[in-house]
Please model this.
Amino acid sequence: MSPATRALALANLIFAPGAAAQTAAPLALTGATVYPAPDQPAIPDAVVLLRDGRIAAVGPRGSVSVPAGTDTIDCTGLTVTAGFWNSHVHFGERKWSRAAELPAVEASEQLRHMLTGHGFTHVFDTGSPLENTLALRRRIAAGEIEGPAILTTGDIIWPRAACRRSPS
Model:
C-alpha cells in the first residue's frame, strides 16, 4: 500500500465516525507515531488496536497483542493523536433548529462537517438553545447520530441593555 493510500485509509478511519465499528474484525493501526495525550510522551512504532469502533489497546509494537484475523493498516511514517476538544462552540445556527427531528444522516453530516471531521471528540457549548443542544446530545449518546460528546452551559444569557435598540 502506497503512503498516500495509507494516509487516505487512516483519514477515512479518523474522519468517518463509526467506520471502525462497521468492520467485523478488529482493526490494528501499526507503525505510526502515537501521541496518546498532551501530557504523555510520543510512542514511536506504535500499535493502536480497535474493537467495535473503540480503542482497545495502544502501545509500542510488541507490547500490544494483535489477534489473528485482525485487519491491519500500516501507518509507518504517519502520526496518530488523541481526539481534540473544542471548548467554544454554539449550536445556534438555523441548521440546528428542531435538532430532535433532523434526519439522522443530515445531523451526522452537519456534525462531521463542523466538528468530528476535524478530529473533535468532545465539545463545550458555551451557549445555544438548550432544547436543541440536549436533543443532539441525547441522539449521539443513543447512537442514533454520530457526533462528539457535548457539554453545555445552556441558553445564552443576554443583558437587557444589549437587547435594546440604540436611539437613531
